[in-house]
Amino acid sequence: MSSNVLVVTVTHNTGDTLESFLDSLAEASSKPLTVVIVDNASSDLDSERAAANAHGASILELADNVGYGAGVTAGINARATDSDYVLITNPDVTFAPGSIDALVRAADELTTSGSFGPRILDAEGRTYPSARNLPSLRNGIGHAIFSRVWPNNPWTRSYRSDQDYGPERRSAGWLSGACLLVRKSAYDAVGGFDPRFFMYFEDVDLGARLGKSGWSNIYVPDAVVTHTGAHSTSGSAKRMERVHHNSAYIYLAEKYSAWYLGPVRAVLRLGLAARGWWVTR
């Protein structure tokens, strides 16, 4: 079976990471890949254009910064007409040899699964908790309140599924959008990323909707990537904290949308606004 894979990455002033990203793709897949770089209105595109030209990738230059999920959607709409799978990935990711082949192999074998996430290592080689449970109201509140002062609290452990990063494939509530292979038919069936999420929680929301539609999300630890992290947001940390808290509210308000849960949504809005102010004060 020969599967076509479209690789979509979204950049915003992160051209310095593209060379190593694109270099690593060559040994990550034994089959040719179609690669599209979606640029969210970077201030200097020269390095991105040079990297794209050198590696046979195409670049889609957007006039405005539309966010991560909407940028991915723009790339898919531009190039994914005949793709079986879409590999959604940050540009500050590098792929271990054979890692994309491992993801595609899992996807070809597990035909009722919609998304597949690799083992993601940080710059120090530690496994990042990228295959997590869907956040519940209880775990979300506990994580929000205690994660910074008591990192090993039971609510954060439950949310991150820290105990389940062994060598076996397993299902998860959602998989990190830093690197994620999605079955194109499943992605289309649920409408892809929700554009209400500028950044953060778009991957949580996608995993939840895939699950509701009968598609499982599978962690594939024999596919390994390294994510050096947060290059596009490092210069605007306070703004990104506010965006993160807003996205959390959008997700939780949708999850607890029944009319009789109006007081819960009000408390969530106030609590997340207060926490956002506290961490950016």
How does this model look, in words?
Helices cover 41% and strands 21% of the residues. The protein has 281 residues and is of the alpha/beta class. The protein has a domain at 5-129 and 165-230: Alpha-Beta Complex (Spore Coat Polysaccharide Biosynthesis Protein SpsA, Chain A). α5 crosses α6.
Protein topology:
Elements: E1 5-11, H1 18-28, E2 34-40, H2 46-55, E3 58-62, H3 68-79, E4 85-89, E5 93-95, H4 99-109, E6 113-121, E7 131-132, H5 137-146, H6 154-160, E8 170-172, E9 174-175, E10 179-183, H7 184-189, H8 202-212, E11 216-227, H9 237-255, H10 262-280
Parallel strand pairs: 1-2, 1-4, 2-3, 6-11
Antiparallel strand pairs: 4-10, 5-11, 6-10, 7-9, 8-11
Helix pairs in contact: 1-2, 5-6, 9-10
Based on the model shown, name its key terms.
281 residues, Spore Coat Polysaccharide Biosynthesis Protein SpsA, Chain A, two-stranded antiparallel sheet, 11 strands, 41% helix
Query: How many β strands by DSSP?
Result: 11
Strand content: 15-25%
CATH topology of the domain at 5-129 and 165-230: Spore Coat Polysaccharide Biosynthesis Protein SpsA, Chain A
* N to C succession of SSEs: EHEHEHEEHEEHHEEEHHEHH
Number of helices, where a helix is a run of at least 4 consecutive DSSP H or I residues:
10
Give the averaged pLDDT, no decimals: 86
Main sheet record: 9 strands, mixed
CATH class of the domain at 5-129 and 165-230: Alpha Beta
Measure the end-to-end span.
Answer: 54 Å
Helix content: 40-55%
- Overall outline: globular
Query: What class would the helix/strand composition place it in?
Result: alpha/beta
CATH architecture designation of the domain at 5-129 and 165-230: Alpha-Beta Complex
Poorly predicted runs are: none
Oligomer: single chain
| Rg calc | 18 Å
